[in-house]
Design brief:
The complex is a heterodimer. Chain A is 70% helix and 4% strand. By secondary structure, chain A is mainly alpha-helical. Chain A has a two-stranded antiparallel sheet. In chain A, a hairpin with a 2-residue loop joins β1 and β2 (10-13). By secondary structure, chain B is mainly beta. Helix content of chain B is 15%, strand content 44%. In chain B, a hairpin with a 4-residue loop joins β10 (170-175) and β11 (180-188). Chain B is globular, with a radius of gyration of 22 Å. In chain B, 46% of the residues are buried. Classes of the chains: A mainly alpha, B mainly beta. At the A-B interface, β1, α1, α2, α4 and α6 of A face α1 and α2 of B.
Chain lengths: 187, 378
């Protein structure tokens, strides 16, 4: 049953009872605007989270699909923060699924989950970032790529300022340890 | 090596020239519309079916389970305010049987732990704690508190460290009814995420007495022990899980309908271990009450406020406490009604930790961002 369709950036909806089964046209117009302005930034954020451009695309798409049905909350919290938080949570859920699938996969049917090593190439700092947990990667991306303050990161991820500081400190400690080991092995 | 500079340069380099995006707005909009229709239709049908079932079968049973003595509406009031001298005091407050005890994480705090003496306006520092002390739990019957951090487990009695155990664990929990100490032992997992094991820790030696099977977790979890049971709240497919306190075997789990951006903010278990409540981040905060034995979500309490933080039961499991904005909300656990709204101080409390003193019927409130402890006579 088709209850709406796309015509350019406009959503065409049926009137009456069936119209209630359509997303708000105003909300969809607003989302189209966010897509145009934020798609590239969100892809980059997704790439830091996952280490894979294809997965980054999927994360952005799924975030938009889910966010479209929650216009009130997006309006209240602001799209950039809401979208990034949703992407972090989606990626965490995806990782759990990947682990479970790997556990049940047979030797001849190994799943190809993102491999930080092959994606990262020889860049040791990037490899150290890829070794972080999803939350730590999110904090590092927002701090060092998007140049946000710790308070802004807390607002974006919906956690306390203390939690951001803790995550950032732990991430840097872990990266220093990783890079230190790398230097030792390389020497 | 200047790690900050290296990170900035690496990020700029790696993200400077991405391949073309694969998605179009038209494709996303169609998916969103299709998903919305499916969710709306399926959700409506399911809700009607569940409602009919609950009315026919479940409601009388649930009424019986939740029927408890309703506490008399004694007005609560703030009787003591203690300034920790630390902004952003991210940590926990617990009751050790004699004093409220505060543990502060964050790594840069000069005050890793403190006792709150009665009537004092400044805290009593616990010397010898690591600045990386991250979590604290208390044995209110034994008068002990356990600080968990990078430097191991520090056992504190009356403000003095009496023992130090090696080992690094997360999310400690103490069951006062059995005297058992638990924590999560983090394991390195595939895909840069982690799983963990529940561990039962000997309170005399600090050694691990028992380990559970690996517990899948998604990073945001709370572990609470009470009445011989362990309850874990997490974000994910099994967000509410119950474990046997002796064997550490999972005895059941219950799903929630939280969205991807939602999740448990806090968890409290009644002293009997029979009921639990999870503070969930929905459109507005929701308290979801669980029957731990089954386990099943019994009912939702919509608070009607914009935000909520911190959660605790009183000593009899009759009242619930949470903080919203600048107010403490006192909630009747049986009916779900807010019986009192008590202003704590001027200014929004962004993060709070709550602990109940069952001896003197007081509630300790750690207002984290303000770095302040408020003692409320209930």
């Amino acid at each position: 049953m088709v209850v709406g369709g796309m015509q350019g950036s406009q959503v065409v909806t049926r009137k009456g009872f069936m119209g209630k089964l359509s997303l708000s046209p105003a909300a969809m117009d607003s989302m189209a605007g966010w897509f145009a302005s934020q798609y590239d930034d969100l892809r980059r954020f997704g790439f830091v989270l996952s280490g894979d451009w294809s997965i980054a695309d999927d994360l952005v798409q799924e975030a938009f699909v889910r966010i479209c049905s929650r216009p009130r909350r997006v309006e209240r919290e602001g799209f950039p923060a809401y979208a990034r938080r949703t992407m972090v949570n989606l990626w965490r859920t995806a990782l759990v699924r990947i682990r479970l699938e790997r556990r049940h996969a047979t030797d001849g049917d190994r799943l190809t989950a993102p491999d930080s090593g092959s994606v990262a190439g020889n860049d040791q700092v990037w490899q150290a970032v890829m070794a972080l947990s999803p939350q730590q990667r999110a904090v590092v991306a927002l701090r060092y790529y998007e140049d946000m303050s710790e308070a802004d990161i807390a607002a974006v991820l919906g956690v306390s300022l203390g939690a951001v500081k803790k995550q950032l400190n732990r991430a840097k400690e872990k990266m220093r340890a990783t890079l230190g080991e790398g230097e030792r092995h390389g020497s | 090596m200047d790690l900050d500079r290296e990170l900035r340069e690496t990020m700029q380099r790696r993200l400077a020239d991405p391949p073309p995006g694969e998605k179009t707005w038209g494709e996303i909009a169609m998916k969103a519309q299709s998903r919305y229709v499916r969710t709306t239709v399926v959700g409506t049908v399911a809700a009607v079916a569940v409602l009919a079932l609950v009315i026919a079968v479940g409601a009388p049973m649930l009424r019986g389970d939740l029927a408890e003595v309703v506490a008399p509406p004694t007005p609560a009031k703030v009787v003591q305010t203690v300034d920790l001298g630390e902004q952003n005091a991210d940590g926990d407050i617990v009751w050790d049987g004699s004093n409220f005890v505060v543990g502060i994480g964050g790594g840069r705090s000069a005050l890793a732990g403190a006792l709150i003496d009665p009537d004092a306006s400044i805290p009593r520092k616990i010397d010898g704690l690591s600045v990386h002390a991250e979590a604290v739990v208390a044995d209110s019957a034994g008068g002990r508190s356990y600080f968990f951090g990078f430097a191991g487990i520090k056992v504190v009695e009356a403000g003095t460290i009496v023992a130090t155990f090696p080992g690094y664990y997360a999310s400690p929990a103490f069951d006062s009814s059995t005297g058992r100490l638990y924590a999560l032992e983090t394991m390195t997992g595939v895909g840069q995420s982690s799983s963990a094991r529940l561990v039962l820790i000997n309170t005399q030696t600090g050694t691990v007495e028992r380990r559970s099977e690996p517990v899948e977790e998604q990073g945001i979890f709370t572990l609470v022990a009470s009445g011989g049971k362990l309850v874990l709240a997490d974000r994910g497919p099994r967000p509410f899980r119950v474990f046997d306190g002796q064997t550490l075997e999972e005895t059941g789990f219950a799903p929630t309908n939280g969205g991807p951006e939602g999740g448990p903010l806090d968890l409290a278990v009644s002293p009997s271990g029979n009921r639990a409540v999870v503070l969930i981040d929905e459109e507005t905060p929701v308290l979801r009450l669980y029957d731990v034995a089954k386990p099943v979500a019994a009912t939702d309490i919509t608070l009607g406020v914009a935000d909520a933080t911190g959660l605790a039961y009183d000593a009899k499991g009759e009242r619930l406490f949470t903080v919203s904005g600048e107010n403490l909300l006192v909630i009747d656990a049986a009916s779900g009604k807010v019986t009192q709204t008590l202003p704590l101080f001027r200014g929004t409390i962004v993060g709070a930790s709550l602990a109940y003193d069952g001896v003197n019927n007081r509630l300790g409130v750690l207002a984290k961002d303000a770095g302040r402890v408020l003692i409320v006579k209930i």
